[in-house]
Amino acid sequence: MRPLLVVALLVASVVACHSKTNAGAVGDGAVGDAKVIRLDAAETAARAPVEASTPPDDALPPFTSDELTARARHLLEAIQKDDDTLAADVVFPRDAYLSVKDVPDPGKHWDIKVLAAFKSHVHLLHRRTKGIDRAVFTSFEIGQPASEAMPKRRDLKRMLWRARRSRLGFTIDGKPSHFDVVEMTGWRGSWYITRLR
Questions:
Q1: Across residues 65-79, what is the average pLDDT?
Q2: Domain spans of the chain?
């Protein structure tokens, strides 16, 4: 009888421990899940204003803004230093181009028609502008009126805003000068260069 009693007590003890462990695990899991849910909700709440404030792809960008002025300064600096990478933020984004351009290989098209052309034109403007290293930024003006570029085969899949003949103003030794930017295209509330020259 004694060995059976010992075995019974051992079994009861193991079952009791197992139940406590599982109850604790369930409780901890429930608390853990609740924390995860609260974190997810907090993350969502934190991200919601950013996502809600992102303008639609085809929103008309403002003609003046601190953000545009800052990127225009980068453009002048890129031309001064003959380093197109300093103005990467003013070039129409590649992912945006892939989503809106109606051509067989939009990635290759962007590489050649947008990025390579931009690099080449930055170099050309640097080389051709006497005293460019002494240039001082004065202004950037979006060409007006901006127009709606409607969807068209071999061009755009959907409507975007375009502005022709925008102007990057600067002085060299106090003398006013400028570069014309052939084409700016609006994307999500900001202007980007699609053709510099």
A1: 98
A2: 1-53, 66-195
186: β partners: 191
| 3-state DSSP assignment of residue 191 | strand
Question: What's the sign of the alpha-carbon dihedral 128, 131, 132, 138?
Answer: negative
* Rounded Cα distance, 145 and 143, in Å: 6
Amino acid making up residue 21:
T
Crossing angle (nearest 10°) for helices 66-81 and 117-128: 70
Nearest to 180, CA basis, from 168, 192, 191, 162: 168
Spatial distance between the Cα atoms of 183 and 197, rounded to a whole number of angstroms: 8
**140-184 pLDDT tens trace:** 999 999 999 999 998 999 999 999 999 999 999 999 999 999 999
